[in-house]
Specification:
By secondary structure, the protein is α+β, with helices and mostly antiparallel strands. Helices cover 46% and strands 13% of the residues. It starts with 6 loop residues before the first helix and ends with a helix. The radius of gyration is 19 Å and the shape is globular. It has a single domain, classed as NADH Oxidase.
Length: 213
């Protein structure tokens, strides 16, 4: 996928940045073409400039380009998905198909980025209420940085997909992927060159989501 917007247009056209954002779409199917190292580095640099609570920058990112690592991540997530869905009483055939589809999306992506948070540098309080709020601030901060990844990838002409499934098995991922124990998996992003044009998804009208007070 290549951006329809010329990059110079964004600086020349006051509304160009909005069109650029509107054109970003979730991409789930990728070409086998690799992402150039300099492109990946630029994308990763973008996370450093996201806003964060207290400027503590509680995000941590584990980047995978080797197939064995991607397969290991897909397996631990697939195993948990299968066990949870079967415990729910879902049909075995349907569950296996969903697991296989999830596995393919992860393994076939040229780059997989596991988005984690750490509470190491966040504030700590003597009460649960404020500690929970602090944790939520860290979650929001990681999401801010992750969106920078998606926008930076779009700028490079790449596609990406935000997947929240790591939330269902963070401990297993941390253990099996040999992550530092302070890194709490929150989501993953798959990146690559789009295999086909993305589907257009509906968006709620502005009046539905905004209220002036």
């Amino acid at each position: 996928m290549t951006n329809k917007m010329n990059k110079m247009q964004i600086s020349d056209d006051p509304g160009g940045w909005l069109e650029f954002i509107e054109q970003r779409r979730t991409i789930r199917s990728f070409q086998s073409r690799k992402i150039e190292p300099h492109q990946l580095e630029r994308i990763l640099q973008a996370v450093r400039f996201a806003p964060s609570a207290h400027n503590r920058q509680p995000w941590r990112f584990a980047v995978m380009t080797d197939e064995p690592k991607k397969q290991a991540l897909a397996k631990v997530m697939g195993d948990r998905l299968r066990s949870d869905r079967l415990a729910d009483g879902d049909e075995v055939k349907v569950v296996n198909e969903d697991v296989a589809r999830s596995n393919h999306r992860i393994v076939s992506a040229p780059v997989v980025i596991l988005c984690c948070l750490t509470m190491e540098d966040m504030d700590h309080y003597p009460d649960d209420k404020r500690n929970k709020a602090e944790h939520l601030m860290a979650v929001q901060s990681v999401a801010m940085a992750a969106y920078n990844v998606l926008l930076a990838a779009h700028w490079e002409g790449l596609g990406g997909c935000w997947m929240c499934a790591p939330l269902f098995c963070p401990d297993a991922i941390t253990k099996d992927m040999n992550l530092p124990e302070q890194w709490m998996p929150q989501a993953l992003i798959t990146l690559g060159w789009a295999d086909k044009p993305p589907k257009k998804r509906g968006r709620l009208p502005l009046e539905k989501v905004v209220r002036f007070l």
